[in-house]
Write a structure and sequence with these properties.
single chain; 91 residues; two-stranded antiparallel ribbon; 38% helix
């Protein structure tokens, strides 16, 4: 189940060394297909991102109404580049 995979990631997040936070904007249109735009978020001081991610993981692993236990299902979403998307829809 995908929720178990997400839970495993949160449980092991503190072992990660190279964290990066990015905002992803997904735009769908009939003319252009699916377009993706990403922006990296920079935290200062450097350890602030690790602290932020640890805080989020504790929330989702906790016993509150935001924990993963409150979710029944999760749908896997596969990202494709705009070029791949156009190729798939043109074929």
């Amino acid at each position: 189940m995908l929720i178990n995979l997400i839970e495993s990631i949160f449980e092991n997040i503190e072992t990660c060394k190279n964290l990066s936070l990015q905002i992803l904007k997904i735009t769908n249109s009939k003319n252009n297909g699916t377009l993706y735009e990403g922006r990296k978020i920079i935290f200062k001081p450097d350890e602030k991102l690790s602290s932020f991610v640890k805080e989020i993981s504790q929330i989702y692993l906790g016993k509150n109404n935001k924990s993963l236990n409150s979710y029944e299902n999760c749908i896997e979403y596969e990202l494709k580049s705009a070029v791949e998307e156009k190729t798939l829809t043109s074929a």
